[in-house]
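job 3f2a | input accepted
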Amino acid sequence: MTNFWHERFSTEEYIYGKEPNQFVVEAAHVLPKGKVLCIAEGEGRNAVYLASLGFDVTAWDYAQAGLDKTQQLANEKGVSVKTELRDLAEVVWEEKQWDAIVHIFGHFPEDVMEKTMTGIQKALKVGGYYVSELYTKEQLRYGTGGPRDSVMLMDPADILHKFDGYFIKHFHVGEVNREEGQLHTGTAHVVQSIFQKREEEN
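job 3f2a | predicted structure (202 res):
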């Protein structure tokens, strides 16, 4: 799988484009200026955008070609993004490290998604935000991007269950239009989340 994404990103063209995801643009004003982690960040469009707004951004991906393009885009835009080659199936999450974690169209096998969601909760600081836009299982009917395996698509109820106890700043399920390079084109069915980690109870 690593080779698949490395090969997919090994082109001059940015296959998801250079512009940020529209939901990231909408969510950015909510986030505290601080340390932001973008997971499964691909070619860096969201990380570079957030860096341009003054966030301290780190991008994780398991395709070196994607990280190389992230640095190339950051240089092009005159911003700084830290890149780290990370496989979410293996990563050890450190506690209370991030003011926000951004997760856009990062779809994984069920066990990796479970590990990732648990890790995100551990790694967010108190008051930190989880921001995501992910394809729902309904996306199979649209065919405008994302995995073709329903197991790797999201059930919105599962996300609410996983982040039970968090403050729900925004939660939306439904259609959006996405024109993101050659692979996300047209009307899609997504679940959007902005969840804030509450103070821990004694």
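job 3f2a | The CA atoms of residues 109 and 152 lie 6 Å apart.
job 3f2a | closed
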